[in-house]
Amino acid sequence: MIAEDEMESDAKERNPNTPIVNLPTLQHLSLTAPPRYSASLLSGIAVPLIRGFVLRCYGGEKDDFATLLSSLKPLLQTSTDRHFNHRLVLEVYLQYEEVEFRLKGISAERKRHVEIFTVSFVDGWAGDAMDEMGTILMDININVDHTTLHVKSMQDTFHPSMLVAVEKLPRVTRMAFDNCDVQWLLQVLTSPIQTELNSNEKRWIFANLEELEMDCCIFDPRQVLRMVKGRFGSQQHKEGCVGFPVWLKKLRISGRSNDPWVVAKDLSPGMMRVIQTMLGDDCLEWDVWTIEDSDDDVNPW
Question: 3-state DSSP call for residue 21?
Fold first, then answer.
């Protein structure tokens, strides 16, 4: 029996012959269960006045995520419709095989925000969960203003297929990495990619990216200069390229000089001046290595 407007449950698999349960006064839902059981429970209830929910899933098989997130569509649509006068912001937190999605509604006055939903997957298929969530957010009728991505402690698993899943998320404007290998990311940000096989048309990946932060990450500092010159220099005006990436408002790179996982080669003062000249003094924050007083050649190739 549900006595309050909020329900917490450890769901068990539902009998498909069980009739739909109508919960007309339920406004908030909190559920912790494996993906398959969560999907079974959510498909068996009707919550017309839902305003927010928290869903935590653990374990499960790869195919379970598509079923679960598909069953989430009505819940996502209904809860976001209740906040039609708010600007919607999606935050994604990724660590190892864990991923969490948080959708917030920000009032017009920007004085407060409301938590609309939190969906997290633990010990599951983080890449597949992101891929499915990105697809669903495109399918349902909600307008997400922008997405911010926070990635922590991913040395080997943040690979090309993961980036493809991330790019499905609506309008990614900020990416923050902590203790990650970001070399491949910097490479794909450097030049436009082919839109389709056997096509001469190209596009910039993460074209809406405004802020990039890397703390204690693995990368070659020279690749930062390559990325800036390729993305914002004369090379960006390439034939066959659709559109241009927005200008970076913040490029923040930090860490401790004794971190064993950070690439040890310094960025020379000459390279740093080139980056600052192209992006602006207020954009670059570089606090990783001690930079010598002597200038080096700014050409990283």
Answer: strand
Structure tokens that stand for 107 in this block: 């009032």
- Per residue in 169-182, pLDDT (tens digit) is 889 999 999 988 88
Residues 5 and 65: their CA atoms lie apart, in Å, by 27
Give the separation between CA 36 and CA 189, rounded to whole angstroms. Answer: 37
Gap between the Cα atoms of 208 and 203, Å rounded? 12
Q: What is the tens place of the pLDDT at every residue in 131-190?
A: 788 888 888 877 889 999 999 987 665 666 777 788 888 899 999 999 888 888 899 899
H helix runs in the chain, sequence order: 35-42, 62-81, 126-139, 160-167, 183-190, 221-232, 269-279
Question: How far apart (Å, rounded) are the C-alpha atoms in residues 77 and 170?
Answer: 16
Task: Please check whether residue 176 is in contact with residue 152, taking contact to mean a CB–CB distance below 8 angstroms.
Answer: no
Q: If you ran DSSP here, which 8-state letter would residue 211 be given?
A: E
- Decide: 300 and 266 in contact? Cβ < 8 Å: no
